[in-house]
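Priority: low. Protein: Pirin. Input follows.
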Amino acid sequence: MSSIELLEGAPVALGGPRGFAVTRTLPNRQRRMVGAWCFLDAYGPHDLSAAGDAGMRVGPHPHTGLQTVTWLVAGEVLHRDCLGNTQEIRPGQLNLMTAGRGISHSEETPASHSAVIHGVQLWVALPHADRDMPPAFAHHEDLPVVADGGLSATVLIGTFAGATSPARSHTPLVGAELTLAAGASARLPLSADFEYAVLALDGAADVDGVSLKPGPLLYLGAGRTSVSVSTGSASRLLLLGGEPFAERLVMWWNFVARDHDEIVHMRADWVAGTPRFGEVHGYDGPPIPAPPMPITRLVPRGSTR
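Result:
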C-alpha cells in the first residue's frame, strides 16, 4: 500500500492578478495526477455580496485532450461553448465537457445569482485512443445517491458503493461527494486497482487517521480496499480515484497533449482562430489570449514529478 501524501495547494488568480481566486492542488509539485484526474481547482466559499464583485468571469478559452468536470457546493455557474450549449449549473448537478480534438467555452457567475459561490473545477486526461474524439457536452441533474447512517454519497462519475453515474468517462475512474453528519463515521469501499485522493470541501474530517481541512489534497495511494472517515462536526469531502494513468503527458495552459510540437500547433490554431476551436457566442467579453510559449521545449511527464 502506498504511503499517504498531503499535497498543499497553490493560490492562483484566474484571469490575472485581480482575478477569481482558486486553490490548485493538481498538478502538484509531488504528484501530477490521481488516476486520469490531472487538474483540480477549488474555490470559495466566496462572498458575492460586495458591490462590484462579479464573481467568476472566465472568458472564452480553448481545451484539447481532456474532460472538464464542474461541481458546485453553493452558487451558480453559467457555461457557454462553441457547440452552442448554454447551461447554468447548480449544486447537485454535473457539467461534463469533453474537449477531444478541440473545444472552447466560457464560465461566469450569472447576473441573477446566490450570495456565495463555492465549488471545484477538475480535468480528466483522455487516453490516447480518445484524445482526438469530437467535442461534446453533457449536463447531468439526476445523479445517484447512496446513504448509510450519517454518510451520504453523490456519485459524479464512475461507480461508488454499487451506484454508477450516467456521466461518461474514458478510463476507469470515480468521483463522489461525501456528506457526513456530525459525529458520523464510516468505512468507504475502495478498489485495490485504483489510486485515491480526498479533498475537504466543508468542515473537517479524519481520513485514515489524518485530520483533513479545506485546502490540501490527501493522496491515499493504491492497493486499498477501504478507508475510514469520521467527523466531529458536519463535513463534506470529495473522493477522487482511478486506475493509475500510464501515458506520459504534456500539460500546458489549457491543453493536454503528448509532446511539445502538438502544443505549438494547438496554440497556433487558437491564435489564428481556426475552426478547430469554434466560437463562443453570448459572453460579454473578449476571448482569453494564449500566453507565449516557454523558451525551452516542454517534456512529457508521468503521474509523479
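The chain has a mean pLDDT of 94. The two ends are 20 Å apart (CA to CA).
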